[in-house]
Amino acid sequence: MQKKQSNLSIIILTHNNENCIDECIYSIDKYVNIKNTEIIIVDNNSTDKTISLLNKFKKNNTKFKIKIIKNKTNLGVAKGRNIGLKKATGKFILFLDSDTIMVDDSIKIGINFLKKNKDIGIVVPKMFYKNLEIQDNIRYYPTIKRKIKLGFDGIKRKFIKSTNINTNDYLEMRDKVIFEVDYGIGAYTLMKDLVVKKIGFYDEKIFYGPEDADYCLRAKLNGFKTYYNGNINIIHERQRLAHKKIFSKMTYYHIKGLIYYFHKHRKNRNL
Questions:
Q1: Span 124-135, mean pLDDT?
Q2: What angle do CA 37, 39, 43 make, to 5 degrees?
């Protein structure tokens, strides 16, 4: 982290997102009104119009300090985020997926929440699909048993069309607005820069999943809690599409990352 700080650094990772990046960045322009905010966009070698759209936004925008970093290859999630983190100067860091859309200025609620609670390092929001259906974005730490069960449940839901299978975590807590969680998916993750200074960067041995669980667990082991705050809102639509295929290249990377995660944290959790 650099010595001269911004108030907020927004880090967005992109890869062939011409169909959604406009909505993301222009919603930030509309709703983020925090002085001295920087936007750092790390592109994982897009081959579509993503970069041209970003350059157009940068050229026409005078509200934010904008940095666009183009990687020569797809470096994955953890490496991509770390490139952004190393350029970030914010007291608070917000990771956004390129398929997210801000709907209000509730990011201020998240920042004030973190300011008031010294032991809380990371906060995740209430997440919606575009049809306003609530998305399952808060999770328990993954374990081998849980992953096997979720895999079988997913197959049952796809082929048996059962409506009695519910894989959502923290169901017993959903009537509460604010509570501690193990972790949240990284489509929207707001954290203090103190977390990065204490535990370092994302584990680059994880290309895609479960880098978010790993980071929040490391934060927990170093005294920083992760909380869900239902007063913060974000739309995240395309995450649902990633689950249509039972097996894909990204599924392979996810399974590989899980095996690494289980081995890495075998002494910390009952994995």
A1: 94
A2: 170
